[in-house]
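Example for tutorial group B:
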């Protein structure tokens, strides 16, 4: 005996969920078509006119079952609901005076309820309420077709109206619930995309702008030294080469995130050649800052600074120093000394960067930045519950100080 496997070929959650959704959709379509066929049989068995009912059912099935990918743009949910609800109300009005079309069945009610669900969930806010009242009212009003002098039965009409009204209210409630879920999902997706854009913008600014600014400054120095001190060009060119390689590596990480999402980011972050943004890497960054021609930069790390601080605190401290050094290159190229201080007291990491420049800079205006670095730093520091202070020093130069809550991992 041969057994046919009706389950999906793979048992992954996504494939199983898609398979189940397809089965539910097929079952819903089959049920709706069978109910419409039942309406036709009921009308034929009672000697009613079939053409108005068949026309309505054909339009209703097309409005509900037309695949979204092939549906014209002008066939909006509000248009479908208005046309079908108007046709149903017209049948109700005529049926009270004409015996030949005085009937209604489960297929018509099911189509109107499906349109009610679509209307409440998908229509624009200004149309959702109007179309919902129209389709729901058409469904509830259908039993009034028997409200005629020769067949008037108030109890029957009331009973049928209540039978139709109950699922109508339930359907409208489900539509509102699904609309709320869709709205929350849309807000969550938009917030996630905004967070990703901000993160990528921060990475571009923190890494690429830092290295490109260094390339620009060292290139200017190389041009001046080409005629005066050509024998000292090699260290400057080596610094330019290193900064360019670092900028390309950072750009590669950002492009990997854009192309491959979190998987690309995880793989690139695991790259051994990528610098780690923590306190250990500060020494290398500060030592490379001045280069053969730049200002002297020194890092003073107090012995009170723990080595096991949370990674997010170390990363924030690294970015503060990085942005401050970049701003020295941009706005204080005349500085001769830059000092980076790290201290720890009362579960707070204090990061201070000072320079002695007057604010003069020979770099082009377009390369001086637009203040986005300080904005990004403020957001990063305040997100950790810290504070960022920037301003001129009393004697000379500029100071950037960040206070970061920094409890040890074991506390």
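The residue assignment follows.
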């Amino acid at each position: 005996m041969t057994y046919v496997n009706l389950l999906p070929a793979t048992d992954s959650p996504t494939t199983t969920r898609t398979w189940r959704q397809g089965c539910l959709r097929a079952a819903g379509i089959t049920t709706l078509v069978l109910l419409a066929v039942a309406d036709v049989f009921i009308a034929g068995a009672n000697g009613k006119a079939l053409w108005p009912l068949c026309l309505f059912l054909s339009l209703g099935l097309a409005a509900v079952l037309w695949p979204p990918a092939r549906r014209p743009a002008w066939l909006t949910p509000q248009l479908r609901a208005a046309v079908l609800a108007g046709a149903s109300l017209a049948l109700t009005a005529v049926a009270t005076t004409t015996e030949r079309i005085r009937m209604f069945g489960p297929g018509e009610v099911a189509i109107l309820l499906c349109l009610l669900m679509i209307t409440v969930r998908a229509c624009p806010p200004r149309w959702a309420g109007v179309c919902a009242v129209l389709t729901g009212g058409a469904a509830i009003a259908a039993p009034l077709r028997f409200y005629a002098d020769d067949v008037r039965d108030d109890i029957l009409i009331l009973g049928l109206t209540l039978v139709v009204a109950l699922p109508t209210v339930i359907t409208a409630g489900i539509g509102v619930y699904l609309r709320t879920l869709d709205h929350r999902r849309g807000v969550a997706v938009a917030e996630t995309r905004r967070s990703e854009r901000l993160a990528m913008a921060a990475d571009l600014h923190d890494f690429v702008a830092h290295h490109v600014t260094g390339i620009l400054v060292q290139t200017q120095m190389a041009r001046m030294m080409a005629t005066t001190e050509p024998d000292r060009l090699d260290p400057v060119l080596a610094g330019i080469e290193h900064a360019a390689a670092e900028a390309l590596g950072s750009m590669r990480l950002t492009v990997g995130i854009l192309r491959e999402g979190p998987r690309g980011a995880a793989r690139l972050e695991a790259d051994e050649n990528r610098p780690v943004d923590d306190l250990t890497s500060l020494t290398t960054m500060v030592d490379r800052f001045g280069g053969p021609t730049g200002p002297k930069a020194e890092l003073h790390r107090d012995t009170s600074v723990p080595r096991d601080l949370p990674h997010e605190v170390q990363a924030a401290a690294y970015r503060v120093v990085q942005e401050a050094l970049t701003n020295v290159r941009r706005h204080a190229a005349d500085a001769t000394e830059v000092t980076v201080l790290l201290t720890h007291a009362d579960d707070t990491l204090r990061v201070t960067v000072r320079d002695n420049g007057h604010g003069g800079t020979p770099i082009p205006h377009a390369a001086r930045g637009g203040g986005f670095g300080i904005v990004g730093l403020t957001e990063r520091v305040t997100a950790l519950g810290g504070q960022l202070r920037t301003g001129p020093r009393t004697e000379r130069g500029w100071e950037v100080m960040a206070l970061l809550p920094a409890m040890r991992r074991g506390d």
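The chain has a mean pLDDT of 78. Compare this with the pattern of hydrophobic and polar residues in the output above.
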